[in-house]
Amino acid sequence: xxxxxxxxxxxxxxxxxxxxxxxxxxxxxxxxxxxxxxxxxxxxxxxxxxxxxxxxxxxxxxxxxxxxxxxxxxxxxxxxxxxxxxxxxxxxxxxxxxxxxxxxxxxxxxxxxxxxxxxxxxxxxxxxxxxxxxxxxxxxxxxxxxxxxxxxxxxxxxxxxxxxxxxxxxxxxxxxxxxxxxxxxxxxxxxxxxxxxx
Length: 198
Known about the structure:
The protein has helices at residues 27-42, 46-60, 82-100, 105-120, 126-144, 150-175, 183-197. By secondary structure, the chain is an all-alpha fold.
């Protein structure tokens, strides 16, 4: 699976809103990311934080409410909807699992791949994931204030850029199942299909 989550020079480019290529996660980045998540978890703020992220998402990007037609996505109703609470808990624990394994590139990549395949079936794109990432970072700033410094923000930004790179690769494969094959592989696949059709 390559050196996606190790330190790399930035030869691989990711299309991001800022048009900056991610720099990879350093040991310090991993430490910043994990310490931020530990603060939320140990202080019992994970559910509250998750609710704030989704309120931000639904308010700033109202079209995302259409993903959950059976849920109460109005900011005033979310906390009374057991299904919405369950969704937030699942998403926050998924995020926590990413953070727990952000130093193990292959495991993290595998986790993101599974999540991407599930969400792409529901037409959640890489751009949507970038939007969600921006809501997470914005709410970390609001919740933690000065405890969430520039180095932590940079680490989380790199973390999500790497996450979205994996998601984007899976989206490309999902939209074009032959995109990851070489020309030889495509020719062989077409030959096999033609044989079966005869």
